[in-house]
Amino acid sequence: MNQDPSAPEQPSVLVIEDESGTSDMLVMALRFLGFDAHLVSTGDETVHEVRRRQPDAVLLDLALPDLDGTELCGRLRAAGIDTPVIFLSARTAVEDKCHALAVGGDDYVTKPFDLTEVSARIRALIRRARGSVRSAPAPSRRLCAAGVELDAGTREVWRHGRAVPLSATEFALLKVLLENAGQVISKAHILDTVWNYGFQGESGVVETYVYYLRRKLGDSGQSLIRTVRGAGYIVHADPVGM
């Protein structure tokens, strides 16, 4: 059957999962939802397969038989591969989520999960990754607050003059906070703006990313990103003229 050249290109996803029943069902479901999904069952194959297939996103199980998922993600990043990675795991502890994000993961979904939500998260990450690669360079525009500078054109961040490397998701989160400096931003607004899907009560991913963003920025005392209990987060704007 010839493929219609005018049909939209299917986003490609590489699934790294060793449980045969789960992995086969996941791949089939993703294909049904419009993804070009393929399976890799061991960590050792992953770097080679990511280079060969060049997927738009990777779904990575945290517990693989031959390699821990976080170690594997670290290998991908060390190899210069910046493909968005979504971790799949039954572990729900904040420490596990933060460690997964620290090694270069872009999102973290706990099992059991809803496939519609996973699909939405994959598409959101792909849109953001494609936008950062394909968009024409934007004019230099710096956002500043509490010793942090963010250049929206070059996608660079500094804290007190020190460069701070951030993932695409961390950068997007910091950008929306700085753009709204002086205002309380709800978790629902952050989810909708950064992750591009409607708020449905799952705010844990926002809390996890804020926690890790604080660590990267050296904001353990929350002098930059302040939590407003029951409302959201606020970054206090610098006084005019500073």
What is the fold's blueprint, element by element?
Elements: E1 12-16, H1 20-32, E2 36-40, H2 43-53, E3 57-61, H3 69-78, E4 85-89, H4 94-102, E5 107-110, H5 115-134, E6 142-145, E7 148-151, E8 156-159, E9 162-163, H6 168-179, H7 187-195, H8 204-216, E10 225-228, E11 232-235
Parallel strand pairs: 1-2, 1-3, 3-4, 4-5
Antiparallel strand pairs: 6-7, 7-8, 8-9, 10-11
Helix pairs in contact: 2-3, 4-8, 6-7
Fold and architecture overview:
The protein has 242 residues and is an alpha/beta fold. It folds into two domains: 12-134, Response regulator (Rossmann fold, 3-Layer(aba) Sandwich), CATH 3.40.50; 142-235, Orthogonal Bundle (Arc Repressor Mutant, subunit A), CATH 1.10.10. Helices cover 40% and strands 19% of the residues. The chain contains eight helices and eleven strands. It has helices spanning 20-32, 43-53, 69-78, 94-102, 115-134, 168-179, 187-195, 204-216, and strands at residues 12-16, 36-40, 57-61, 85-89, 107-110, 142-145, 148-151, 156-159, 162-163, 225-228, 232-235. The strands form three sheets. A five-stranded parallel β-sheet has the order 2-1-3-4-5, with helices on both faces. A four-stranded antiparallel β-sheet has the order 6-7-8-9, with helices on one face. The chain is elongated and about 55 Å long.
